[in-house]
Design goal:
- It is a single chain.
- By secondary structure, the chain is an alpha+beta fold.
- It folds into two domains: 1-155, no CATH class; 159-324, no CATH class.
- Helices cover 38% and strands 16% of the residues.
- It has helices at 8-11, 38-43, 70-89, 91-96, 99-128, 136-149, 207-211, 213-219, 226-242, 279-289, 297-300, and strands at 32-34, 50-52, 58-60, 65-67, 156-158, 165-171, 178-183, 188-193, 196-201, 223-224, 249-253, 258-262.
- The strands form four sheets. It has a five-stranded mixed beta sheet, sandwiched between helices. Strands 5-12-11 form a three-stranded mixed beta sheet, with no helix packed on it. Strands 1-4 form a two-stranded antiparallel ribbon.
- It is globular, with a radius of gyration of 20 Å.
- The relative contact order is 0.11.
- The mean pLDDT is 94.
Length: 324
């Protein structure tokens, strides 16, 4: 029997009567699924912590939920248990995880936020106008993320490619550090907790990792100071913004498997895949990521061609000892 994918963006179906992942009609009493699981919100006291939405409104981490069928909830809980075990054990266990599982967990988190953002926007626009509009680019991007997330409940195979860039670092975090960040327009995510940092771009076919290969090779096996990991995050969040392709994919359903193939990113376009790196703009991104340490833009780009760095010294070597 052929599996059937659900495409909520075709009819902009984001109500609470259908499962967010499978699209099946929910029975009364079927619960919403928390995007930030209890083990995480309880360990870091996140339940009441404010979560800022794009329209500047505030929810709490506990408010970020999606309507979910019992079957899908069980499949997501199985994924959550695997991730929880690895995260609680720390860096060595996270590093050994199947990266597709990490991708699915991050995709579930980011898509859960997107779902709540869309519901909020639909409510607001219905109040003031007679419709809800979203750019075709975002519909394509979010729709593809949702399709790939259905690997949780469908027999999906990424055929000879990975849709993501994943960076996992050992980080000398403070005991109760929890630093979460997402950028839904570029589908970029970072998390710093326990003794590790996780940085993911969900839809770039691995090119952000390739773009930062030189610096990553020098730091990937090192234990980082938190400011070094945040600097890496700034680099990847900024390059994700400079990434100027909208990845295209072929979806090939067969009797028992759904294959997803990536189209070449270059296509017919001779233009480089990334726009030009602007040091001042990058400096502004770093300033934001370094807020906890109080560095200002003028300090960061004092030398405009060589912004301040805690990852590499002037000779391009990794800085093993950071003292702040």
């Amino acid at each position: 029997m052929q599996s059937k994918l659900f495409h909520p963006f075709k009819k902009m179906q984001f109500d609470n009567q259908h499962c967010f992942l499978s699209g099946e009609l929910l029975n009364k009493g079927q619960n919403k699924f928390p995007i930030f699981a209890n083990w995480l919100t309880e360990a870091y006291k996140l339940k009441e912590m404010p979560f800022k939405m794009l329209d500047e409104s505030m929810l709490s981490y506990a408010d970020i939920q999606v309507p979910c069928s019992e079957t899908v909830a069980k499949q997501l809980n199985d994924l959550e248990l695997t991730i929880q075990k690895a995260f609680e054990n720390g860096y060595e266990s996270v590093k050994e995880l199947d990266q597709d599982l990490l991708f699915l967990w991050v995709a579930k988190t980011v898509y859960g936020v997107i779902f709540n953002e869309i519901q909020s926007a639909i409510k607001q626009q219905n109040t003031f106008t007679d419709g809800f509009n979203m750019s075709q680019g975002l519909i394509h991007k979010f729709g593809m993320l949702h399709t790939m997330l259905q690997k949780v409940n469908q027999p999906i195979v990424f055929e000879d490619f990975k849709p993501y860039s994943i960076f996992i670092s050992k980080v000398n975090n403070l005991e109760n550090d929890f630093a979460y960040r997402d950028e839904i327009n570029t589908l970029t995510f970072s998390l710093r907790m326990k003794d590790f940092g996780l940085l993911v771009n969900l839809q770039d076919n691995g090119v952000n990792k390739k773009y930062h290969e030189e610096v990553w090779e020098k730091m990937k096996d090192k234990t980082l100071h938190p400011i070094q990991f945040e600097e890496l995050c700034a680099k990847v969040f900024y390059s994700a913004y400079l990434f100027n392709r909208l990845p295209e994919y072929h979806i090939i359903p067969t009797d028992d498997t759904i294959f997803i193939e990536a189209m070449p990113l270059r296509g017919m376009n001779a233009k480089p895949i990334f726009d030009d790196w602007q040091f001042k703009t990058y400096g502004q991104v770093v300033e934001n990521f370094w807020k906890a340490w109080g560095f200002l833009l003028l300090e960061i780009i004092k030398n405009p061609e060589k912004p301040m760095s805690f990852i590499l010294d002037e000779n391009g070597e990794f800085i093993a000892e950071v003292s702040l």
